[in-house]
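Justification of computing resources. Each target in the renewal requires a structure prediction run like the one illustrated here; the chain below, 174 residues long, is used simply to show the kind of job we budget for.
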Amino acid sequence: MSTRRTFPLGLALALAAGAAVAESPNLGKPINPADIAAWDISILPDGTGLPPGSGTPAQGAAIYAQQCAACHGENGKGGPSAPVAGSPPIDRIEAVKTIANFWGYPTTLFDFIRRAMPWQQPRTLGNDEVYALTAYILALNKIIGENDTMNAQTLPKVVMPNRDNFIIRFPDRI
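Resulting structure tokens:
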């Protein structure tokens, strides 16, 4: 068959396929805004998006012992999962990265715990529990004091040891 004859046929098939894709298969149901809002929980480095609540290192220690120690080890020194305490120097790409020696913002720690922990039941911790765990981990790393309270006002003010060692791609967005 010549190219002149197959081109119109191919064009007609492509247009018909495009029209079929444009039609909805009527599967599922429309998502409502409340369902989307439940997953719209991002926390920015400046603290925008932090929920109400608060917690102390002492409160976090009890939660850590029950929910986290089996994976992250006693006092956060590591277990089957990564350590969350200690700050060995990062002298090579393979070096162990912990909260103290690598993470740039405490709000990122809060966000990660809130969305991903405990790994077998993510998003099951309440806001007060997440603030308490964040406070405990920061205190383990000697970034905050043992009597400090973390909440939406105090957490963004914590300066992480590695904060200035990143190249910010969009500094105007911070």
